[in-house]
Every structure is written in structure tokens, then in C-alpha cells.
Amino acid sequence: MGVVNRRNAVLGWTVWKVGKRVAKRKAKAAVPNVDPETKRPNKSLVASLVGAVAGAFWFVRRRKGDEEQQS
Known about the structure:
By secondary structure, this protein is mainly alpha-helical. The protein contains 2 helices and no strands.
């Protein structure tokens, strides 16, 4: 009996489909609702974006400083 057979393939496919559905449901539940009246983004989204931009800026400056020191 092989490891990959029809029964295991169907079982794996089913687990994958159900797992994706559960993951999507959890992801939707984790995102805070945006107030439709004000149309303003939530504070956690703004904070995440500011942090990501600051991290990218810090990374680029650090890399540029390393290149100047090596020359």
C-alpha cells in the first residue's frame, strides 16, 4: 500500500479546504471594523503602517552607512 493513495489524497484535500475556510473566518474576525460613517482607517492600521515605514527607513539608512564605511 502506497503512502499517496486516493483515500489519503481526498482526506488531505478535505483538510486543506476546511483549514482555509477556518483561517479566513479567523482573519476576518481579527480585523477591527472600520466605521462606515467616518470612513477613517483604524488606529492600529495607521500605527502598523507608520512602524513599517520607519523600519524600512531605518534599514535603508543602516545599509547605506555600511556601504560608506567599506569604501
